[in-house]
Predict the 3D structure of the following.
Amino acid sequence: MKKVLVLMSTYNGEKYFSAQIESILTQKNVDVKLLIRDDGSTDETINIINIISAKYTNKISVIIGQNLGYEKSFLELLLNAKDADFFAFADQDDVWDSDKLLIAIEKLNKFQQAPALYYSNVRVTNAQLQYSHELEDKGYDKKACKLLNSGAMGCTIVLNKSLLEILQKYHPQEKWPHDYWIMTVALYVGAVYYDPSSHMSYRQHAKNATGGDIKLKHRLNKLIQGLKGYYKNRWSSLAFELLNGFSEDISPGDKLILECFRDYQKNISYKINLLVRNNITKNNLIKDFFLKLSILLNKA
């Protein structure tokens, strides 16, 4: 059986995470181990982990750390990951189907030794795991401008050892959400497989660090925050990080787009290039307007 190391960051998760750990460690036809980094919990999380660890001998390892926030906590886990064939990320409050990891591994095996990442759709549920809707992804890996549209649900990501080794070569200077960072790197240096089927229950409740935002007002708030983000040099900063860490692994065509984003503020030809390219798009008229405006204002 293939060895899988699941990476989980916990923070005051006493209410839900026991069910999640059970669903991870009882995965079918894979040899699973769990590496947990606790991000400074103040509730009973650590005690509950110790109780579960006694049940699953040698299956759980724990790093007890100070509170860094979920972005840095997951990146710390990434840097400490080793000794497995595949690596997966888990939130503390979901519940996985028993074949979630096996399905991901079967898809990733098609890429053999090439760096590759798998991600999938999810079933959104309420706190009692009652079905709400599917959180469909649009398959961003198929879009021409990968920098703008990368994204994956971190709790669905599984990557092979080749991609992990590339990711561990470079620690990003800025604080990026782990799933956004990992997905973007994978798109530029390797292969990505999107599974439109759901293999887990994505539990939504009042204390999610991030989430599917079932209520309309939450979705509107996310849209407003997203539009504000167009004016924070997000993509030029990300382009700098990708070129700084992985330039030798990126194709010439993708490298040109990254160089345009990195340097357009001081190179008018790069700015024009970004403004006239049809593939510099968010595939949404409103978002495209703000994107082009942010480029004009040197804020992209």
